[in-house]
Amino acid sequence: MKKIVVAVVAMLAIGTSSFAQGFGWGVKAGLNVSGMNNTGLDSKTGLTAGVFVDYRFNDWIGMSADLLFSREGAMLKSGGDKYIAKTNYLNLPILAKFYVLDQLAFNIGIQPGVLLSGKDKVKESGEETAFTTTNNYKSFDFAFPVGVSYEFFNKLILDARYNIGVANISAGKGGKVHNNVFALTLGYRF
Fold it and tell me: What is the separation of C-alpha 40 from the centre of its chain, rounded to a whole number of angstroms?
């Protein structure tokens, strides 16, 4: 009988702990530094923002999914001239979270993305020209995000992530081009 009582108490404790950690959702925003490999262009900064849901299965494992707007691209400066490629994506990163401490997790997952728009700006001899370049890029992107996150007060989440682009985003016949993005965000869990 004593073993049964201990087993029931242990199951209730585990169930209560899982429920207490359980499900959450919130908003996040931050900055990213993005680049397009094989282009000869330098990285550029952009904004990222969106919503997230997360679930913590136990003390060590959780998962999260974000729906993020992300301004990405690349740029080149030469003297007073400048070329900027801006791409806007709607990304859906889905991450497994491995907690090494109660609030510190290492994250790895997949990230499909959809191109919303593309725009290039060229500034030569003081004159700036902008043109839509959505047709220069494929409409689908795919990356493997890896990173680390830290939770403060069970409400704030600081997340640093590197998205390793694996899909060729160039619609041209030249070489393959991949997005590579480092993002730093701050989230608030409701």
Answer: 24
Distance separating alpha carbons of residues 111 and 162, to the nearest angstrom: 11
- What are the structure tokens assigned to 51, written together? 């919503």
Residue 16 lies in a domain: no
* Cα distances (angstroms) measured from residue 38 to each of 18, 48, 73, 112, 134: 46, 24, 13, 21, 19
- R_g of the chain computed on alpha carbons: 21
For residue 146, what is the domain's CATH number?
Answer: 2.40.160.20
Question: What are the tens digits of pLDDT across the range 127-163?
Answer: 888 778 778 888 999 999 999 999 999 899 999 999 9
Residue-range definition of the domain harbouring residue 170: 23-189
What predicted TM-score, i.e. pTM, was given to this entire model?
Answer: 0.81
17 in any annotated domain = no
Q: Is residue 89 part of a domain?
A: yes
Q: How many domains does the chain have?
A: 1
The CB-based long-range contact list for 77-80 (8 Å cut-off, 24+ gap) reads 77/42, 80/123, 80/125, 80/126
Cβ atoms of residues 95 and 64 within 8 Å: yes
